[in-house]
Amino acid sequence: DGFPATKLFNQGYSYTYDDVIFLPHYIDFPTDAVQLSTNLSRNINLSVPCVASPMDTVTEASMAVSMAALGGIGIIHSNNTASEQSSLIRSAKSHRIPFASNDIRFVSPDDSIASGSVFDTAPCVFVTENGSDSDRKVLGVVDKVNWERLADKEARVSSYMNKNTVTLPNTYKFEDVAGYLAAKELEFVPLVSGDGSVVDVVSKEDVERIRGFPKGGLPSVGEDGEFLVGASIGTRETDKERLEHLVKAGANVIVIDSSQGNSIYQIEMIKYVKKMYPDVDLIGGNVVTMYQAQNLIQAGVDGLRVGMGSGSICTTQEVCAVGRGQATAVYKVSSVAAQSGIPIIADGGISNSGHIVKALTLGASTVMMGSFLAGSTEAPGAYQYQGGQRVKKYRGMGSLEAMTKGSDARYLGDTAKMKIAQGVVGAVADKGSVLKFIPYTMHAVKQGFQDLGASSLQSAHEMLRSGILRLEVRTGAAQVEGGVHGLVSYEKKSF
Ligand code: XMP
Fold it and tell me: Is 365 exposed, middle or buried (0-12, 13-18, 19+ CB in 10 A)?
């Protein structure tokens, strides 16, 4: 019944995730028995197969910390100077506990807090000399209880702020902070660095949420005892200098960022990195064919990033006429990479948990995501309101806007004088914290694996290669049937 993958993917069609569907197999274990632990690259293990893409609207320190806290990893983008990128790595690695996803809000002593809505996302407001996050030395703290008791909401915060709020050093481990909150019956506690600057604020709710992470979802911590953090580079001469800064800052894995990775520039860079920093894992790409993959594997990569033009903001296939449907690309590249023991990252085109199940079953060891993580609390940038909806900007690194800031190396040759966009700028709706929706998504992925009768990624890969798992192509009508259809929206009426 159905087709084995070898037959389905050798018919001359380029399929993407939505084109194909797996046939269910046999269940003989509970959902919780599914293990999603995996390899990002030859020497880096993760307990959750999720990677945040090196894009300037997706991965900076906050995203990297949260992804590592969840058991995945974030790759800090390089659309900045080497020193900016290094300080983002340092900042991410300086966190000891799973990041509290709260906003950290500041006001100056002369300000007033007119509306309590600030306490929806922040457990307290910090009063600092200039009232902005450039000055994080705390003079006092206002919490919701303080504020609610206040008769005159126009009062200056200096007149009622709490000047004796207890703080803890930000080097405290999660369990110590949790124990302190419980023992003192506190709602929240600010964590401060050596000079008294506030770094984080952990609330009772955070403790409950973090404790509720799925079992086995161990944080990604390296041998240095710090969170695993990756960083991207390009293939120019200046990237060699950048690389030195990134390695010094503690980057655990380097990703060479290119839309067509099979080039003399990348191969030379791979050889250079492996010679200079043999202990740092190196991921090459992007590739979509077996030939491209073989060349980069031969050059010495420890992992491969797969995808060309499948990203939600990508226009590469339209502009350059090259690329491949992502399901076919993942299957084809993984079939050569597996022979050399090189894990692959399915990069781009993930918009639901079913896509993750498909990518991982077709041979990927991890999925890299842009739009799925954009719009979250942890994504860089501020929220804004658009047509009544709270959104954050999400842009392709090959969009003119991003290239103007410097990411042209990924999409242009060294000598190109004219910028041709291979990506677009858009916005993504607020989806809350990745600390909440990634564990939920991973649970859905586990259910997919259970339906396939695969209790781990390794067993899914074996079942696919041996032909036990079967797939089919979905017709257009079958795809419509597979989605929500035939409904009008239901509006709750009160009678
Ligand atoms: P998703 O679908 O997760 O895709 O939003 C993220 C991936 O898309 C790639 N990327 C681009 N591709 N033009 C492209 O053709 C671009 O401007 C661009 N920016 C990012 C990248 O691989 C990322 O991980």
Answer: buried
